[in-house]
Amino acid sequence: MIYQSDSSGINSLRGGSFQVKVFVYYMVMLKKGMQIEFETLEDVNI
User: Fold this and answer.
1) Count of C-beta atoms within a 10 Å radius of residue 36
2) pLDDT for 8-21, tens place per residue?
3) In a 3-state reduction of DSSP, which class is residue 28?
4) In terms of Cα–Cα distance, which of 42, 4, 2 is closest to 22?
5) In the structure, what pLDDT confidence band is assigned to residue 33 with cuts at 50, 70 and 90?
6) Euclidean distance between CA atoms 23 and 38, whole angstroms
7) 44, β-bridge pairs
8) Rounded-to-integer distance, Cα 17 and Cα 21, Å
9) Average per-residue pLDDT in the chain?
10) Residue 38's closest CA among 14, 25, 10?
């Protein structure tokens, strides 16, 4: 059996990491009267 490197676990985490970065970006840009939500199982809502 030949060992083959697999990075699928790391690749699947990339989307979640991106969502957190987008959430933080918009959180910093919030102005009075605005709101932001972060759904842990879905997407970022603005």
Assistant:
1) 13
2) 667 777 777 888 88
3) helix
4) 42
5) very high
6) 7
7) 38
8) 6
9) 77
10) 25
